[in-house]
Amino acid sequence: MKAVILLSGGLDSSTVLYQARADGYDCYALSFDYQQRHRRELEAARDIARFVGVREHQVVSFDLRLWGGSALTDNQIDLPSDRSLTEMGQTIPITYVPARNTIFLSFALGYAEAIGAAKVYIGVNALDYSGYPDCRPDYIQAMQEVFRLGTKQGLEGESIEIVAPLINLKKTEIIQLGNSLGVPWEKTWSCYAGEEKACGVCDSCRLRLAAFQALELEDPLPYAS
């Protein structure tokens, strides 16, 4: 059985890849070079894909800097830094990329139907403090209907299923799951800054570090601060 896994190279998506493999699927990884500020994550995605031994790893390239609208696609917008977890949960942050998961899932749907995959795995999480609207259960449910209505497979009664195994897990629970699956955290990348070392102060770094600390574990990534 085949499954397409959206793989950014981060903690969540790497855990999802390992989960899909544990579920018994032949894994076809799909990553995106959308000229994001943190393109460093693509190196991690390639490393993880090679390490796991996926059947195929596709990297799709396009440029979301064309319309910006996010600190991840517009270098003129400052990244939020040194924010508390409470602050992160108050509003949708400027690191939200407009409709990103809809774009990603559309590519994944086309890829999955082309290769005859039964499932698309995605590492969205509704309990993260980021509050992104395209990481919520109702969004995934709506996209599942798009998968059913918008494909030949769906109309023939064999709709490709979206699998979001992390959607209701805390970050600490995701790390615990990853540990049980053997995810090599040192090969993953979460930082939005995309420098040689993780910055340690952007929202993504803060969430990751807080979870490792809560579990009394050491994050093996090198941090600048």
How would the blueprint of this fold be written?
Elements: E1 2-6, H1 11-22, E2 26-33, H2 40-52, E3 56-61, H3 85-88, H4 100-115, E4 119-121, H5 137-149, H6 152-155, E5 161-163, H7 171-181, H8 203-214
Parallel strand pairs: 1-2, 1-4, 2-3, 4-5
How would you describe this structure to a colleague?
This protein has 225 residues and is an alpha/beta fold. The chain has one domain (2-183): HUPs (Rossmann fold, 3-Layer(aba) Sandwich), CATH 3.40.50.620. 38% of the residues lie in helices and 11% in strands. The chain contains eight helices and five strands; from the N terminus they run E-H-E-H-E-H-H-E-H-H-E-H-H. It has a five-stranded parallel sheet with strand order 3-2-1-4-5, with helices on both faces. Helix 1 packs across helix 7 (171-181). The protein starts with a strand and ends in an 11-residue tail after the last helix. The mean pLDDT is 95. One of its GO terms (molecular function) is ligase activity, forming carbon-nitrogen bonds. ATP binds at residues 7-17. Zn(2+) binds at residues 191, 199, 202, 205. This is 7-cyano-7-deazaguanine synthase.
Concise structural overview:
The chain has 225 residues and is α/β, with parallel strands linked by helices. The chain has 8 helices and 5 strands, in the order E-H-E-H-E-H-H-E-H-H-E-H-H. It has one domain: HUPs (Rossmann fold), CATH 3.40.50.620.
